[in-house]
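S.,

Sequence below, as promised.
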Amino acid sequence: MEFYHSMGCGCDTCETDHGPRPFLTNIMHAASQNPNFRTAFWTGHHLQMTLMSIPPCGEIGAEMHADTDQFIRVEAGTAIIRMGTCKEQLDSQHRLHSGDAVFVPCGTWHNVINSSNCPLKLSSIYAPSQHPKCTVHRTKEDAAKETHQVY
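The prediction came back faster than expected:
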């Protein structure tokens, strides 16, 4: 089985999404290089990894995935995650630092807020996939337009 590396992966469908082939990379480095609010980095048949860059004082916005579990990892920066059973009551709050991760079960409302003075770099795994293969949202506003969601 051939593995593709982050440099010169031979991906013929787009330049950002390296799935569903076997793929090796350094996620911290890839996340640090991602300038976009959201980039689909690897989309497989049953899960997807996106990379995110949240500006200082920015946030993902309160969201909930009805049929998708999510794993969020801070690659650089610090964040606050708020979670709860409804959008108006995110009463569980925790601080996250580089290397910290949180598992968000489907049906859980959550929001990640950048609490640092530099861009917050995240990696996020969805199972099953949440976004179309090769998705790139340069800004939070672009994401809201394309997904028709209010963040």
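The mean pLDDT is 90.

Coffee later?
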